[in-house]
Structures are given as C-alpha cells and as structure tokens.
Amino acid sequence: MNTLPFSIKESLIFGWEAFLAHYTVFVPIVFLSMAISFANDYIAKHELGSIIIYSAFLLGTIAQIVLGMGLTKIALKITAGEAIAFDDVFSATHLFFKYVGANFLYMLTVFFGFFLLIFPGFFWLVSYWLFQYILIDRETGVFASLAEAKRLSQGVRWVLFKFIMAVVGLNIAGALIFMAGLFFTIPTTVAAAAYVYRALRKRLEPERILEQTNIVMQATK
After folding, report:
1. Which segments of the chain does DSSP mark as H helices, in order?
2. Cα distance between the two ends of the chain
3. So where are the chain's domains?
4. By the 8 A CB rule, do 61 and 40 touch?
5. How confident is the model at residue 213 (pLDDT cuts 50, 70, 90)?
6. Which end of the chain is more exposed for a tag (fewer CB within 10 A), N or C?
7. What span, in angstroms and rounded, lies between the C-alpha atoms of 54 and 13?
C-alpha cells in the first residue's frame, strides 16, 4: 500500500499548535511586517516626494524579505525541536542575495510556464515551491535549492498542490477578516509548510543513504 509522506490535516494542526506554543514570537513578526506595508502605503498615498517614496519602497521590500526569511528559519527550528526567540528572525540574513536570486528565478520559471500553457505553470509552481525552506535549512545555492525542491516533490505533486491551495485559502480568509486573521494564518501556514518539508526530506533520506553507499562501493572496487 502506497502511503503519503504527509497529511494536509496533520500539517495544518502542527502549524496551529506551533503558533499557539510560540505566539509571543510570531505575532510581533507579523505585526512588524504589516506595519511596514501600511507605512509604505501611507507614504505612497500622501505624495511625500519621489525620492522618499522610492527609498521607502526599497527599504520596505528589503525588510519584508528579511522578515520572511526569518519566519521560515523560525518554523524550521520548531520542526527540528529547537528553541526559538525573536532574534532568530535575523539569523538567515547572510543568505539574503541567494534567497532573492532563487525567488526571482522561481517566479520567472512559473511565469514562463503560465505564458506557454497553464499546466506547465502549475507544474513548476508546485515542483519548486519548497525551495526557500531548502535554501534556508541547508544553506545551499540558488540552483541547488530549486533542484532539490523538484526532487522532494516527485511523486507527491498532487497532494502538495492541494496543500498549497489550502495555505492560499487560509491566508485569503485571514486577510478578509480585516487583515487581523493574518496574525494567526501566516505563522500557522509557514510552520505547516516547514512540517511538510521535513516529512518529504525524511522520506527521501533512506534513498540518499543508499545512493551514497553505492558510490562508496563503486569507488572501492
């Protein structure tokens, strides 16, 4: 019997429990992210000058990326059973340029897929979706992260697609509740995605060990 490496329900329950256990870390991060977004909107609407607007947009974008990386790092530490603190939000900043490069390549690939046909766009969106968790967890390069994400998604793309839709749906619902729901849904879904990443990596670990053993055996012949 072929069993799936993760359950969507179990992953979301894990994410919710992770939020409840660490809301004192998660809530300030989400609040800071939303405050930056509102500040940028305020500056843009009140026409405070093009230099101020562009500077605020650039700094705000950098800050949002750093917070997103930090949130992912914190979720990965939780799934690894490690203690976390608010300062962990800045613990992945040394990967900033790799993270930006990988995101750009991912979005370009998905856009190109949708431009060609709808199916390739969805296929590549799902295949490479976990790249940021790999990049931050393993500190790999841009192409290595994307390649490993594709490898992790093999055989589970359909259930991974349904999980992604669940994540999107929850965050849309959170945004509709006067944005306040995002304080709950963003940490929950990020932690749930980290749980899925760990489950898929664990599934392929025996295969990786076997490959390494075969390489060693061939080298000793």
Report:
1. 8-21, 23-45, 50-79, 96-116, 118-127, 131-138, 142-153, 157-176, 182-220
2. 37
3. 8-204
4. no
5. very low
6. N
7. 40
* Cα distance between residue 6 and residue 164, in whole Å: 13
CA angle at 59 for the pair 56 and 62, rounded to the nearest 5°: 145
Structure tokens, 183: 């304080």
**What confidence tens digit (pLDDT) does each residue in 117-152 have?**
888 899 999 999 999 999 999 999 999 999 999 999
Structure-block tokens of residue 75: 């979720």
Residue found under tokens 């329900």: 9
Contact (CB, 8 A) for 188 and 16: yes
Tokens at residue 1, please? 């019997």
